[in-house]
Amino acid sequence: MPLRRNIRPPKRHVRAEMKPEPRSSDLSLAPVARRKLSDSVVEQLRAMIASGQLRPGDALPSERDMMARMGVGRPAVREALQQLHTQGLITISHGERSRVNPLNPDLALHQINDIASLLIAAEPGNLGHLRDARKLFETGLVRMTATKATPADVERLRGLVGLQRAALGDTAAFMRADIDFHTALAAILGNPVITALSHAMLGWLFKHHDTLLHWSGHETVTLAEHEAITDAIATQDPDLAAERMQKHLDRSERLYLQG
């Protein structure tokens, strides 16, 4: 009998499932906008400031020099300088070369003052969110302050409370003294970011509260609370300082809500 061969069927090659390529119409491409010449000038000058080639107080090249070296016209240079001036990076003085301003947290936060005011005015609920942020910020801040304040710091706080007491009867001066007291608490930590945040936050809050109506009759309570906070800091008791700050801010919030 003829031998039967074991014939195996040929192997079937399974193709890997291929994902369909996206159609060109599905890609989110957008037209490329032409850059203004002034934007390129701004970019170069900002890079020079960031790298330290131009330091605070340094004069920028003259308009004529920038025109020649960058290959742009006077309008582009002037528009770029105005942008940098608006951003707070340089100061433009008539008849003199523009100079680089010092870079610090106050400068950065100053740039968003108008936006912050717009956000609060456009959506009143943001004012409550800001008050909540202030509570979290200041109770934590005073807790740290109580562990780091020196006798000289405590004396300065007591002096500010005295100045605020002397401002009784002058609501605007009393409000300024209130901000000075809270800003001084932040300054004790020696952290410029915290100090700038404190000053900015207080400015936004006081600007959007009708404090002239709600402070009347509560000034002496505010003074007593500031004194109590200062006493807790003097005894280096962070928990007590935070508790008294929380009480102070809670009472202040009730006054705001009366409006």
Structural notes for this entry:
The chain is mostly helical and 259 residues long. The chain has two domains: 37-102, Arc Repressor Mutant, subunit A (Orthogonal Bundle), CATH 1.10.10.10; 110-257, GntR ligand-binding domain-like (Four Helix Bundle (Hemerythrin (Met), subunit A), Up-down Bundle), CATH 1.20.120. The chain is built from twelve helices and two strands; from the N terminus they run H-H-H-E-E-H-H-H-H-H-H-H-H-H. It has helices spanning 37-51, 63-70, 74-86, 105-110, 113-122, 125-148, 151-166, 171-187, 192-207, 211-214, 219-234, 238-257; strands spanning 90-91, 99-100. Strands 1-2 form a two-stranded antiparallel ribbon. Strand 1 (90-91) and strand 2 form a beta hairpin. Helix 11 packs antiparallel against helix 12 (238-257). It is elongated. The model is unreliable at 210-214 (pLDDT under 50).
Helical segment tally? Answer: 12
Terminal residue distance: 111 Å
Major sheet description: 2 strands, antiparallel
Mean pLDDT: 83
What structural category characterises the helix and strand content? mainly alpha
Instruction: Flag low-confidence runs.
Output: 210-214
Determine the CATH superfamily of the largest domain.
GntR ligand-binding domain-like
